[in-house]
Specification:
five-stranded mixed β-sheet, alpha+beta
């Protein structure tokens, strides 16, 4: 990269840092305690929740499905994946139940396990049309 004085600076990129234990630990140790003084928790207003019926045994730790059970009545697809849009109280309830505003969770309802992946949307971004196009209602 170029520096302001028009010099060059080499930067080592750890694109596969998770496979390099010393690099992974170094990055984690650097960031684990870091908190920007002006940082605020991000509470998304809208998100996509990707759902798939769990294939195989559920892990020991599962969460109870925190939303309306009819949201789990999605059409079976060849690739075992469905997506719904969450916003408002539904999104708040989901985040409260899983304890984070992004990523994976295994949820259970009436003896069936589901993998859920929450992808929050940034403010002023709307993927509703894209989501409906990719996952049309039957």
């Amino acid at each position: 990269m170029r520096t302001p004085g028009d010099g060059l600076k080499e930067v080592k990129i750890y694109a596969d840092f998770a496979n390099d234990l010393p690099a992974f630990e170094g990055i984690r140790n650097l960031l684990v305690g870091y908190e920007h003084p002006a940082a605020q928790d991000y509470m998304p207003q809208r998100a996509a929740l990707f759902l798939s019926e769990s294939m195989g045994e559920a892990p020991e730790t599962t969460l109870n499905w925190p939303l309306d059970p009819t949201l789990l009545e999605f059409p079976r697809t060849d690739f075992n994946l469905w997506a719904i849009e969450l916003e408002g109280q539904q999104l708040s309830d989901y985040i409260a139940a899983v304890g984070r505003n992004t990523g994976d969770a295994i949820v259970e309802h009436e003896g069936r396990s589901y993998r859920a992946f929450l992808a929050p949307w940034l403010p002023a971004v709307d993927f509703s049309d894209d989501l409906r196009a990719a996952f049309p209602n039957p």
